[in-house]
Give the backbone structure.
Amino acid sequence: MSDTMLGLPDTEKEYTLTIPRPQYDRLQRAEILKVDSYFRQYDPEKDTIKFVVTERQRTSFAKYATEENRENKKTGSLYWITQMFLEENINTYMKG
């Protein structure tokens, strides 16, 4: 049972990311972002999407960005589009 369900505050770290809309579309098509609950805002002037992921989600997505996964025939195509979720890369997308 989650902390929130127990009435405790949810203290999991969240990342608010801003990326170009085509990149967000690729993540959705690859079913990395399976639901629209991640979406927060669209900026039509910059053609960017602002969305939120939790630390747990970031860690899960980053598993696809490993060299080991790159060789996997089923999930290797996710290698490049999930690089942004690696701990050393995520701060680049936390602008905006």
Remarks:
- The chain has a mean pLDDT of 85.
- The two ends are 34 Å apart (CA to CA).
